[in-house]
Amino acid sequence: MQKGKLLVFSAPSGSGKTTIVRHLLAQPELNLEFSVSCTTRALRGEEVNGKDYYFISIEEFKKHIKAEDFVEWEEVYRDNFYGTLKSEVERIWAMGKNVIFDIDVAGGLRIKKKFPEETLAVFVKPPSVDELKRRLKERSTESDDKINMRIAKAHVELATAPQFDKIIKNYDLDEAKKEAYQLVKEFISISE
Length: 192
Hints:
- The protein is an alpha/beta fold.
- It has a single domain (6-189), classed as Rossmann fold (3-Layer(aba) Sandwich).
- It is built from 7 helices and 9 strands; from the N terminus they run βαβββαββαβαβααβα.
- The strands form 2 sheets. Strands 2-7-1-8-9 form a 5-stranded parallel β-sheet, sandwiched between helices. A 4-stranded mixed β-sheet has the order 4-3-6-5, sandwiched between helices.
- Strand 5 and strand 6 form a beta hairpin.
- Helix 1 (17-25) crosses helix 7 and helix 5 (129-139) packs antiparallel against helix 6.
- The radius of gyration is 16 Å and the shape is globular.
- It starts with 5 loop residues before the first strand and ends with a helix.
């Protein structure tokens, strides 16, 4: 099977990575397809099963772990698993496309370690932790306890930024989108 490129976008929740990834997916010349991750958490807001995530039970997730079906997986919060199925990457590569991930920091680094030549790992850095908290509250999708849990995790995640290939500072969303586009375009054209 022809291997495409893997484009990993990781960041603490509320950094803007999902907005940047959606922008990149809207650029047909980049030939990108979104990698849909599996999760055991409940749907939020307007999310759609099979489009935003594959929402599965903890039992089903653990069966996939045992069968070694994942490229990467992690228990991000207690009983809250996320992972990327090997079959998802293979499906996208079979379409002749490059895979783009909107993924947590640990998962992003695991993909980079597993596929070092094929992967561009990008960390999206927020303006500040206070701004992250404001953005998460503005979403109105989670309780204060969940937001505080995410903020505590953000401090740890921010410390991993130097392990990524590139860091985009998302102080201005339009600039961050332009920078992401250039990075992806250059990385994809290396092998063409």
